[in-house]
Amino acid sequence: MAAYIVEDTKKITTQKIMQMKKDGKKIAMLTSYDYTMAQIVDQAGVDIVLVGDSASNIMAGNLTTLPITIDEMIYHARSVARAVKRAMVICDMPFGTYQVSREEGVRNAIRMMAQTGVDGLKLEGGEEIIDTIRGIINAGIPVIGHLGLTPQSVYKFGGFGVRAKEEAEATKLMNDAKLLEQAGCFSIVLEKIPAELTQKVCQAVSIPVIGIGAGAADGQVLVAHDMLGMNDSFKPKFLRRYADLHNVINDAVGQYIIDVKDGSFPSEAESY
Ligand code: KIV
To answer: How many A from CA of 254 to the centre of ligand 1?
Structure first.
């Protein structure tokens, strides 16, 4: 596999991300939740590193993103922000931190920005939270919207299936996308919706649309642990696996155990 050559090493800004759509350049976004992974992902040349609330699943083993707290997200985001030099770092606002009121949402958003060093936040939802999004952007915080399968609403949806297949939901999603653009979001993530609808949204809004399980868009986002094959059993249709780290790690750990048990590790060269 080829390494990606980073042409411009300057820190990526919201303006640069929006310009990429105008220039027809695709945006590559990946998650990270810790310093080491964020450093690798940034050095490889991604445009945006997302401290996703999928940390709840991937890091903590929860079934949904709902249990992760603002303090836990702040811990992950700080670690990532410390590592990243070039990419934009965006952090998810966790469940319950922005749905109650505009005031509480703005206060939590300010806290997350002040205590982490990230470059912006991502919130799930459209019309229902548009006033809060306006308040956060008015406070000077860049925001990415998130529509379609919004995992914080998994219990409302009744599962993690494809969203907006029916006309009414597709129409609402299109309206929400326009509202997010009008409110000042600099980008929108669309998760698990039909590719045709994604295309329509890409054409209807001037801000970049970043897809996950949503077909072609202005950019793509994946959970890094998933695309690296860390979880052997997670194989949704939309996921392309670029490595098989589950087996790589399993083999390495297996060899280590053998070497320890048969006494071949450490050797003389590995001893003081
Ligand atoms: O939390 C997350 O990782 C996300 C991506 C799946 C878009 O929101």
So the answer is: 32
Catalytic residue list contains 268: no
**Ligand 1 atom closest to Cα of residue 29:** 7
Which runs of consecutive H residues, i.e. helices, occur in the chain? 14-22, 35-44, 55-58, 70-83, 102-116, 130-138, 154-157, 167-183, 195-204, 224-227, 245-261
Catalytic residue among 7, 104, 191, 268: 191
How far does the centroid of ligand 1 lie from the alpha carbon of residue 214, in Å? 13
Q: Give the Å distance between the CA of 131 and the centre of ligand 1.
A: 22
For 241-249, what is the mean pLDDT? 97
Q: For residues 269 and 267, what is the distance between their CA atoms, to the nearest angstrom?
A: 5
Q: DSSP character for 163?
A: P
Domains, the chain, with CATH or none: 14-241 (3.20.20.60), 244-272 (no CATH)
- The total number of residues written for the chain in this structure: 272
Dump pLDDT digits (tens) for 136-192: 999 999 999 999 999 999 999 999 999 999 999 999 999 999 999 999 999 999 999
Best CA proximity match to 48, nearest among 10, 79, 22, 86: 86
Residue type for 179, please?
L
